[in-house]
Structure formats: structure tokens, C-alpha cells
Design brief:
The protein is α+β, with helices and mostly antiparallel strands. It has three helices and five strands; from the N terminus they run E-E-H-E-E-H-H-E.
Length: 145
């Protein structure tokens, strides 16, 4: 049994906070955007219903397939100024979670609509999706075999 290839589900958390905190700066992304988490969670539900994630695959990556089964994609508030994105799937593409976060940030800032997100998912064009967010706030939380 191979630990990496035998896993059935993986869960990642991407942490963000909205106020200066020297204890979080190395493990969470500090952002001062006014984010609409309710809308971002609607976007997360849309992502859960989708299966081809070419729009979130690192440009130039050599992937056999961009098909993933996402079973969870939601923002969880942990304090008045901190949240994390919980995302679970059977597999992830390289850079996928960070690109999902960047795209959900666009949605939460009202830079794109849910209809735009649907179009981004359907077109599968990486340049249409949001920027790749910094990696220091991304953590593998759980692996199920």
C-alpha cells in the first residue's frame, strides 16, 4: 500500500485572518478585503457540483486528467477575524487549492459573479480563474484511507 496513492480522501485547510496578529502571520494569510463569506460558500457549493478542475490546474502542468471529486468546499469562521477554507476531494491538482481560494476571493470581493464562476469552471481556462494565493496558509489536515 502506497501512502500517497492509496488515499481515498484528502482535506486541506487554507487559513486567513483580517487583523494584524504576529502569532498568525506565518500560518495564515492576512487580508483586509471585505469578503462576502455567504457568497463564497455559495461558490464553494458550485465547486462541489463540478468535476473538471482544469481552470485551477497550474499552467503547463503535466496532468493525466483534471477530473476530481470535491465533497466539501466551505469557509468556516473560527473567530471574529479568522476563517479557513475546508476543501476535501479524492485528489487535488497541483496548485488547485490556492487557485480555488484566489477565485473565491474574487467572488467574495464582488469582482466576479456566481455566473462568472460557473463560466470559469466550464471553460477550464487557468487565466480566467483567480490568482494563486500564497502557500504559507495551506495545510493538509486529514487523509482517509
Amino acid at each position: 500500500m502506497h501512502a500517497r496513492f492509496s488515499a481515498r480522501w484528502r482535506t486541506y485547510h487554507y487559513y486567513i485572518h483580517t487583523s494584524k496578529d504576529p502569532f498568525l502571520c506565518h500560518y495564515s494569510l492576512e487580508t483586509h478585503y471585505d469578503l462576502d463569506f455567504e457568497l463564497m460558500n455559495k461558490g464553494g457549493m458550485m465547486i462541489q457540483r463540478h468535476h473538471d478542475f482544469a481552470a485551477f490546474c497550474k499552467a503547463g502542468a503535466d496532468c493525466r486528467t483534471t477530473i476530481c471529486n470535491v465533497t466539501e468546499c466551505r469557509w468556516v469562521q473560527t473567530s471574529a477575524t479568522s476563517w479557513y477554507l475546508a476543501i476535501t476531494a479524492n485528489r487535488f491538482l497541483r496548485n488547485m487549492v490556492r487557485a480555488v481560494v484566489g477565485t473565491l476571493f474574487l467572488l467574495g470581493r464582488h469582482k466576479i459573479t456566481l455566473e462568472d464562476l460557473e463560466r470559469i469552471l466550464n471553460e477550464g481556462n487557468r487565466s480566467s480563474a483567480g490568482e494563486s494565493m500564497p502557500g504559507h496558509a495551506l495545510f493538509l489536515e486529514k487523509v482517509e484511507y
